[in-house]
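Hey team,

Filing this mostly as a record. A colleague (T.K.) asked me to run one chain through the structure pipeline before their review meeting, and I want the input and output archived in the tracker in case anyone asks later how it was produced. No errors, nothing strange. Just documentation.

Input sequence:
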Amino acid sequence: MPVGKPDLVAAAADAADLSQAQAKKAVDAVFDAITAALKRGDKVQLVGFGAFTVRKRAARTAKNPRTGEPVKVPAAKVPGFRAGAALKAAVKK
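Output structure:
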C-alpha cells in the first residue's frame, strides 16, 4: 500500500512530538527545498538516505503504441534518485 504525504506528516508529528500543522510545515519545507535545489540544477545529497539529481534525457524517436507511427520525443530534464547504502540495507532486511 502506498504511503502518501499525509502519512509522512503523521509520522513526523509522532516522531518529533509536533502538532500536525507544525509537521506539515516541516515536511512541506523539506520538499520545497529539494525542489528548489533541483530547479537550480543542484544535487541534493542526504547521507545514508540517498541523492536527488537532475538527469538529462536526450531527444529520441518513439512509437505511438496505438498506431505504430514514429513520434519525436524532445530532450528533457527529469528528476532522479539514487538510494544510499543505509536505505538499501534497511529495505533489504
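Quick notes for T.K.: The radius of gyration is 18 Å. Residues 1-40 form one domain.
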